Amino acid sequence: MHCNKYGWLFIAVFFTATFLSACSSSDGEMTDVRVGEVTRSIFYAPQYVAISQGFFEEEGLNIDLTTTWGGDTTMTSLLSDGIDIALVGAETSIYVYAQDANDPAVNFAQLTQTDGTFLVSREPVGQFDWNDLKGSTFLAQRAGGMPQMVGEYVLKQNGIDPQKDLELIQNIDFGNIPSAFASGTGDYVQLFEPTATQFEEEGLGFIIDSFGTQSGNLPYTVYMSKASYLKNNEETVEKFTRALYQAQQWVQEQAPEVIAEAIQDFFEDTPLSTIEQVVERYRDQGSFAENPLLQEDGWYLLQEVMAEAGELPMEVPYNELVNTEIVTGVIEE
Length: 333
Description:
Blueprint: H1 9-12, E1 31-37, H2 45-52, H3 55-58, E2 61-67, H4 71-79, E3 85-88, H5 91-98, E4 105-112, E5 117-121, E6 137-139, H6 146-157, E7 167-169, H7 177-182, E8 188-192, H8 195-202, E9 206-210, H9 211-215, E10 221-226, H10 227-232, H11 234-253, H12 256-263, H13 272-284, H14 296-308, H15 318-321, H16 325-332
Helix pairs in contact: 2-11, 11-16, 12-13
């Protein structure tokens, strides 16, 4: 879901466009905020709740949500002022910073706090042990992406060398991985929801473990803006964060079927029962952040995962790319 190699940053960082800042008027006029999400996913349920339940509207914000399909496209849109706020993996802000950006992307609110993929087997498994993967064919996520980095990190944490202990397949495009597994490629596969649940329902695979619970808490998907936008639109970002926090609390309090109904319009091609199962699974494993504060230990775990995969361009201090002032003020209200 999150791209890694950003050669396009050399162009995007220096791309200039008319800066459009959202500002509220004193007569109660709504403020337009352009948000680009890296993909459309039930993994982002609190965001859709904030829209459907009117939490953004109550704050005087009109959210123009666009699915930007990929980390590279999302960050290019943010850096060129095509969007005001990006929902994307926190690792992208590190890649931008490493290119000596004059106006870096700064993380200000966290949405998901674990990886969103699951380990799916072709055959039913009784008592699963990660050592069972040794000698098997493993259909992994695309090389260099955040899901693959977390996947390899988890495998190594469980004593498996992905390059030596597995027949590792990681050259299949993200969108084609499910169909490749369904057609017979691989003994195990790393899948996102709702595909993992749909495979179980259709008897094509069986969820046997979660990369999210295995890897621990890290800022997998966050909201970020350029430093200049945060400086010039602090009130708008505060309102945005307040609405998000309200939605996060709502998701923790409501039954899965209520949440599923609240976000159903965003997933018209997915059965309501499947949405409900996915919401429940993600919430039960703690994938939805309960508040927007990006924790310091999660920030450094992210960099540990990146470094382990050989993809960390440089170590970046927590306070350099994480703004905690806004979210702390909102939580303490």
